[in-house]
Amino acid sequence: MATLQDLENLVAGQFESPTSAAEALAQLGVPAASIAILANDVVSTKTISTSAISSDTLFQACSISKPVAAVAVFRAAQAGYLSVTAPITRYLSPQQLAFLETPKTKPLLQHITIEMLLSHTSGLSVGGFPGYTHDPPPIATILQGLYPSNTAQVRLEGFPGQRFQYSGGGITVVQMILETVLQKSFPSIMQELVFEPLNMSRSCYKLPDSEDNFARAYATAQTAHDPPYHIFPEMAAAGLWTTPGELLLVVRALQSSLRGTNDSFLKQEWARLMLTSVQHKYARGWKAPASSGVFLHDGSNDPGYRCLLLGWADVAGDGNVELGKADSCGVCIMTNSPQGAEMFIKIAQATGYLMGWPAFPIVLTFDTGTIPLAALGEVREGWKEWVGYWGEKWHILHGESPTLKFAYLPPVRLLPAAVAPRKYEEGTSIDLVAAGLKIMLRLGWEKGERIVEVRPGQENDADVLRRTHI
Length: 470
Description:
The chain is about 25% helix and about 20% strand. By secondary structure, the chain is α+β, with helices and mostly antiparallel strands.
């Protein structure tokens, strides 16, 4: 796929001196990135790494485990094994319910439903899990917060259905419900309901003793963790091992279900219910802001895995979402260091830029001022209309290519940003990054007047600058 080669060239071009994409990625703190793109029903893959990995190399999917587990729940509901609107008391024994009880909240447990667990509106606690280096306890012990669990008891902290409260603990209750209802282990359930139907032959919840094709976790691109990964008995919440290419098989299947062309996997009405927003931009198992055109999830596992899965679709099917070239497309990026949290956003932005997709909605957990990668080539024509002084201290200088000056400091070259432009009535934005700095400029309009938005790194809000003089 030409886009993947363009993406590799773009990563390699982030530094002045010639370097490979793998070396550039390492300088940005990430030892390995496995990337897959879905377009025209075809999944294409690429790896960028300083070590010997392939598109079949396994990464921890982190919290992307949650939406994949949700797919299994909806497949089970479609088959009549359970109801997502039923209270959990229908499926769990009094002994199991006691794991979650406190004397004051016991009467409220009967009002928690499975879809509340999936949409993080159950009121249950424990947002995430750190994993174990060895000998992980069973989930019954973890839910009660008993020794040797490394998290507290999963318990009610709010009224069921009251508000969004991210709860990996709630998803672990889903795992217990599936195992109780279907009388099988969670890996066996996932194999039957998701992995086998979608030919996900590389996906699992426990690495076989003979498996050596996995990406170990790193602290930085140079420093590997020991042990190489943590074990997550909270499998539905965080325990999936897989590849980007196989995760996009899930996205492709759901897109087909939404179109009504894959009822054998999940009927259209079930897919729409799962991906319809409930609260706080979350649907049931997925992030899916209403009318955004995307469904997605990101993930972060200690000690170093970071990843993103995203698909484009008109979830409601009412034609109110303009997908353009993104229709039935998707992207997945999996990395093995904490710096991957920033890098997967940059790579996703660059993929959308190269593919001509619309701008991504701001729904990513780590999207706190992430500055795009610099694109290759020249700045788009028209930038000279913004030459001049902006705000109190900013100056865009005239020349063959734009430069930016702040106060009395030396000017810095401006490069095109690898991110989808914003649409205005007057035209589309010209997006730029300052060479070597975590600063992005968006040249656009507000109420017919030209403006410059400056987004410094690590800040979510942009400063809007108005022209002072030319």
